[in-house]
Amino acid sequence: QTNPEIVDKVINIAREQLGVDDNSEVTAQSTFVDDLGADDLAIREFVLALEEAFEIEIEDEKVQSISTVGQAAEVIEELLK
């Protein structure tokens, strides 16, 4: 199970970066494209914000495999180990 603090931080960054309405629910299951309306550019900017916030570097191929908030949190947790 992914660390809830990481998930919360990813959710907050997603809200901020993707301009998600405060009334919209964002969970670990939320998908960037379908649920949060992100396009490729928005996802790239989101990844940059994650890299900055967590002081990590996410490889492009890893980015391709991320489609939900929870998956992003998992990748980050792996990189922080």
Automatic annotation (TrEMBL):
Query: Pathway membership of this protein?
Result: Lipid metabolism; fatty acid biosynthesis
Q: Which GO terms describe its molecular function?
A: acyl carrier activity
Where is each Carrier domain found?
Answer: 4-80
Q: Which Pfam families match?
A: PP-binding
Q: Which UniProt keywords apply?
A: Fatty acid biosynthesis, Fatty acid metabolism, Lipid biosynthesis, Lipid metabolism, Phosphopantetheine, Phosphoprotein
Cite the Gene3D superfamilies for this sequence. ACP-like
PROSITE patterns reported for this sequence: CARRIER (PS50075)
- InterPro entries with a match to the protein in the record: ACP, ACP-like_sf, ACP_chloroplastic, PP-bd_ACP
- Could you tell me what this protein does? Carrier of the growing fatty acid chain in fatty acid biosynthesis.
Family in the record = Belongs to the acyl carrier protein (ACP) family.
Question: Could you identify this protein by its name?
Answer: Acyl carrier protein
Which organism does this sequence originate in? Brassica oleracea
